[in-house]
Specification:
Helix content is 22%, strand content 27%. The chain has two domains: 117 residues, Aminotransferase class 4, branched-chain amino acid transferase, N-terminal domain (D-amino Acid Aminotransferase, Chain A, domain 1), CATH 3.30.470; 151 residues, D-amino Acid Aminotransferase, subunit A, domain 2 (D-amino Acid Aminotransferase, Chain A, domain 2), CATH 3.20.10.10. The protein has 350 residues and is an alpha+beta fold. Helix 2 packs across helix 3 and helix 5 packs across helix 7. The chain binds pyridoxal-5'-phosphate (PLP).
């Protein structure tokens, strides 16, 4: 959005000193948040596609803009989803689309935000948007937010806007995350308590906590952070759920430990049980992670990624359950496993 005309090229004299001048000329190149060192492997740039769905219509990518005084930009009260569409023999298929949109609606309900579209309408809108890109596979980001027009913390009079964007996006923790594994650090940041910021709602504001932990971990040379909750139990990562293997039992923290109810986590539990592995939701301590026989994290963006160490304690990687589950998950999302075909929602009629 352009600066107001009167700021273009303006130079203001500071009132207090009468000496220094502030140069408010428009900055052509927006600098990076540059003192934070990040290696190329951690960059996740956005590749534009043709259009973004906004409030019921497809608008050109470059015109999909919001006003700087949009309510949710100031107070973090947006709700969103991260979804993937995969290439299959019958064209792009969105993985567990309806489940993701239901979770979006649940997040909105927690925030007392009334979505102006039903689950069915948003499911259709996602399919329209994916189809419009012409991509065989993509990442999908629906977001609902309180729009422009009101300021202040009362959201009751705010409008609710909805947008859906899709773009091609690679593996979040790196292409070799399954084979080489990722290095984890227990964060110095504590996961939200359900009575502070409900972690089961996927709200934009919740990710302040995740982002603090993520950047801390990256700056310390790790790939990802693990969050403990207020009581000290293992909760989840900044954008993934956690599984620990002990013998041939898989343990994962319950949502009561402050984790998002992951759709990948749910899929992994189904796959693991179908393999005959025992799966238990259990509270875990950090030492349970250090002594794991194997460990992986999972989420829509990261898929199934093996963990090779936690706080520099090596963990055998990839473990046999991790390898089997990652492989099966990779096949399931691409429509190659009959048993899981109901998880796929095709974009084109077939
Ligand atoms: C904090 C957090 N936990 C877990 C997950 C995994 O959830 P899902 O598998 O539904 O993508 C995500 C990703 O959305 C997340 O952001």
């Amino acid at each position: 959005m352009p600066l107001p005309r009167e700021y273009e090229g303006a130079r203001l004299r500071r009132k207090d000193s009468g000496q220094e001048q502030l140069n408010l000329t428009r900055r052509k190149n927006r600098p990076r948040n540059s003192d934070l060192q990040t290696d190329e492997g951690n960059l996740m740039p956005i590749t534009p596609t043709a259009n973004i769905w906004m409030n019921g219509e497809l608008v050109p990518w470059e015109d999909a803009k919001i006003h700087v005084l949009t309510h949710s930009l100031h107070y973090g009260m947006g709700v969103f989803e991260g979804i993937r569409a995969y290439e299959t023999d019958a064209g792009p298929a969105v993985f567990r689309l309806t489940d993701h949109i239901r979770r979006l609606q649940d997040s909105a309900k927690v925030m007392l935000m009334e979505l102006p579209y039903s689950v069915e309408e948003l499911v259709e809108a996602v399919k329209v948007t994916v189809r419009d890109t012409g991509l065989p596979s993509c990442y999908i980001r629906p977001i609902a937010y309180f729009g422009y027009g009101e300021m202040g913390l009362n959201t009751i009079p705010c409008s609710v806007d909805v947008a859906i964007a899709c773009w091609p996006w690679g593996a979040y923790l790196g292409d070799d995350a399954v084979t080489k594994g990722v290095r984890m650090k227990i964060s110095s940041w504590t996961r939200h308590d359900p009575n502070i910021m409900p972690p089961t709602a996927k709200t934009t504001g919740n990710y302040v906590n995740s982002s603090l932990a993520k950047v801390e971990a990256l700056k310390a040379g790790y790939d990802e952070a693990i969050m403990l909750n207020v009581q000290g139990w293992v909760s989840e990562c900044t954008g993934e759920n956690i599984f620990v293997g002990r013998g041939n039992v898989l343990l994962t923290p319950p949502t009561a430990a402050g984790a998002l109810r992951g759709i990948t986590q749910d899929s992994v539990i189904a796959i693991a049980k179908d393999f005959g592995f025992e799966v238990r939701e259990e509270f875990l301590t950090r030492a349970d992670l250090y002594t794991a026989d194997e460990m992986f994290v999972c989420g829509t963006a990261a898929e199934v990624s093996a963990v090779n160490s936690v706080d520099d304690r090596p963990i055998p990687c990839p473990g046999p359950m991790t390898r089997a589950i990652a492989e099966e998950y990779g096949k399931a999302v691409r429509g190659k496993v009959d048993r899981y075909k109901d998880w796929l929602e095709y974009v084109n009629e077939h």
